[in-house]
Amino acid sequence: MNNYSYQSEHLSHSSAVRNAWLYFIYFWIVFAAGTFLGQFVPPGLRLMVSVLIFALVFISLFAKASRKFGFLISNALAFALGIVSYTSFMYYLGVLGQTVFYQNVALAVVAFFAFGAVGYFVVGDASNLGRLLFPALIALVLASFLGIFIHIPMFHLVITIAGLAIFFLYTIYDFNRLKRGQFSAQEMGFNLFINLLNIIMDVLRLASILRD
């Protein structure tokens, strides 16, 4: 009976992890659709989409009622992030060149899974890390919003480095939750998508700043 219970629990955990990665892929598809549409969106409207993104982020972070609409908000965020990311990708492609651009994207992906492996295989219990990261994330969101209107290179460099550190730590934290089974598949898939997207964007931004 104990062996049967262990096998059932193992299968349930494996199924939840698999579903989380399926949601991860799903949100990247939604993001890709938004990126494709982004090429047709005028600059003025893109600024409005950016403001909408920050509004959705704050709603999801602070409004308890947002949990009822979590999947809808996640889809809207992934799609809206794709719209505003199109311009960023085109800019980084122009500044860095195609080869360096894809090298940095590959570096970001490798770093994401490397830090994830630390959280999954090395760290025992990272549950306390979430309490420390949440206020740091709030500060980062506020600073990033101000960054839309502040065009000081050093300010953006600090935000970029801080963003990398925060989302690397969030990657450790989320992979650790995957190991411990303390997650819902849809929420975890979206979290992993957000972690990787921010790491990619911050690596590209840092490479662009250093190149300038």
Could you name the key traits of this structure?
single chain; 212 residues; mainly alpha; 7 helices; 86% helix; 0% strand; globular; disordered N terminus
The main β sheet shows up as: none
Helix percent reads over 70%
What Rg do the Cα atoms give?
A: 18 Å
**Assembly category:** single chain
Measured distance between first and last alpha carbons:
64 Å
Number of strands: 0
Order of helices and strands: HHHHHHH
Whole-number average pLDDT?
A: 90
Q: Structural class of the helices, strands and pairings? A: mainly alpha
Total of helices: 7
**Proportion of residues in β-strands:** under 5%
- So what's the overall shape? globular
Topology of this structure?
Blueprint lengths: L1 H37 L4 H20 L7 H27 L1 H25 L6 H19 L5 H28 L4 H27 L1
Helix pairs in contact: 1-3, 1-7, 2-3, 3-4, 3-7, 4-6, 4-7, 5-6, 6-7
In short, what is this structure?
The chain contains seven helices and no strands. It has 212 residues and is mainly alpha-helical. It is globular, with a radius of gyration of 18 Å.
Can you give a write-up of this model?
The chain is 86% helix and 0% strand. Helix 2 packs across helix 3, helix 3 packs across helix 4 and helix 6 runs antiparallel to helix 7. The radius of gyration is 18 Å and the shape is globular. It is mainly alpha-helical. The N terminus is likely disordered. The longest helix is centred in the first third of the chain and has 37 residues. The chain starts with a helix and ends with a helix.
